[in-house]
Specification:
mainly alpha; 0% strand; elongated
Length: 434
């Protein structure tokens, strides 16, 4: 006698061969059909049907493994998204067949040619303690920052030896900043990051309060810091500054940061008095108006907290016009264009470039900050595209604002005059929160 279950199974078998793709796709989404039905549908000619199987939470694990090699990017991306949702719910620390098969699926997807799919795998495994170590090391060395960054920043499986090898070898652009943001960075790693002279990475390291930095290494950073404005704020806020370091920092940071330095509760009275005396001396020198270009620059740096903190500064028409005001004025005058942004990049006016890109692309300045901190050539390309600027402007920003070596500058043509496809451009914007 045929049971209801048998009847349902026979009905599902008939639907497998239905000529209507929507009927088969709906069958592939169902969670009440037998595993063999779903596995059979992995062979369907329609990517829509196979994508439905890939996204189905009850699809058998061997179906997932098969779909990880599917010819359709849509299918593979859907599978990656599903595994990302399901893996946290699976018991960790067990070498059972189910979890092992999921890891096999991720290993296949980690070799995908599509960056976004590898990035999903990296996000899935970034803090998984029982992920395959070789797979984690592979992702950490990926040429794309969106893939490497989550692993480099969070994975507990990367040893100090792994990190040192990555720092001193080939790595994704911006990868060192991700390493610098790790929890409890060891002194040896800090030494290697400073030795790399990656300015953005050192800024991230200084901002990481859990990072261990030797006194000698911090002294080296302080000695290099006068011309590295992005280090000033993190240095002032760095825990456990020695009196010697605090006094050196007071000699070059802007007034607003000097005030923060003086207000640190951990400075002993003698050090605080010495810092205060140094700041007063600099203010007096600035007020005396020595007339040299250096004295004028010092005066602007000390007397204008908005300039010092990156909120504005002298420029444009009149000394009271901030950089932000100048950007908005040029926009109103229809002069905020490729020529203006390129000129600012070539003159080293990083704040103008940042605010101009934010204004033209209609995105938050914080998103531009992320791109600049990561020194992401692809991120700059994407923002310039959204801002309706031209490729030569994006190249100038890469060369001058990001100080990228020639081999790392993106300047070729891949789609519509840009070195990235439209899909890649949009993905970069989404990745940086733009």
């Amino acid at each position: 006698m045929q049971t209801q279950d048998d009847a349902d199974y026979e009905a599902a078998k008939r639907l497998i061969r239905d000529p209507d793709v929507f009927v088969r796709a709906n069958l592939a989404k169902r969670t009440d059909v037998r595993p063999e039905i779903l596995y059979y549908l992995t062979e369907d000619d329609s990517a829509q049907v196979r994508a439905a199987v890939a996204g189905n939470a009850v699809s058998p694990l061997h179906a997932n493994l098969k779909l990880a090699r599917d010819r359709s990017q849509e299918v593979r991306a859907g599978l990656a998204d599903k595994v990302q949702r399901l893996l946290p719910e699976m018991p960790q620390g067990q070498q059972d067949a189910a979890r092992a098969r999921v890891m096999q699926t991720l290993e296949v997807l980690a070799k995908d040619t599509v960056v976004q799919i590898r990035a999903v795998v990296a996000q899935t495994l970034k803090d998984v303690p029982d992920a395959p170590p070789d797979l984690v090391r592979q992702l950490a060395r990926d040429a794309e920052l969106s893939v490497a960054s989550p692993i480099l920043q969070f994975s507990p499986l990367l040893t100090d030896e792994d990190l040192l090898d990555i720092i001193r070898g080939q790595h994704a652009e911006g990868a060192l900043s991700a390493v610098a943001r790790r929890s409890n960075v060891a002194e040896a790693i800090s030494d290697a990051l400073v030795e790399s002279d990656d300015s953005a990475a050192v800024a991230s390291l200084l901002a990481n309060r859990s990072a261990q930095i030797r006194e000698e290494t911090l002294d080296l950073i302080v000695d290099r810091a006068p011309t590295r404005a992005e280090w000033h704020g993190p240095l002032v806020d760095r825990p456990s500054l020695t009196p010697k370091a605090a006094l050196k920092i007071a000699a070059f940071v802007a007034e607003a940061l000097s005030q923060r330095l003086q207000a640190r509760p951990d400075l002993d009275p003698a050090t605080r008095d010495a810092v205060t005396a140094e700041v007063r001396k600099r203010l007096a020198q600035a007020a005396s108006g020595a007339g040299s270009g250096e004295a004028d620059a010092r005066k602007r740096n000390l007397a204008d907290p908005a300039w010092a903190t990156g909120k504005g500064g002298a420029g444009g028409e009149g000394a009271s016009e901030t950089v932000g005001d100048k950007v908005k004025r040029l926009r109103r005058e229809k002069k905020l264009d490729d020529a203006a942004v390129t000129a600012a990049a070539q003159a080293g006016e990083k704040l103008f470039v940042k605010l101009a890109l934010a204004e033209l692309a209609a995105i938050r300045a914080e998103a531009i900050d992320k791109i600049l901190t990561a020194r992401s050539a692809k991120g700059i390309i994407a923002v310039c595209w959204k801002a309706k600027l031209k490729l030569p402007t994006a190249v100038a920003i890469q060369q001058k604002t990001l100080s990228m070596p020639p081999k790392s500058v993106l300047s070729g043509t891949k789609w519509d005059g840009w070195p990235l496809t439209e899909e890649e451009l949009k993905w970069q914007l989404e990745f940086f929160g733009a």
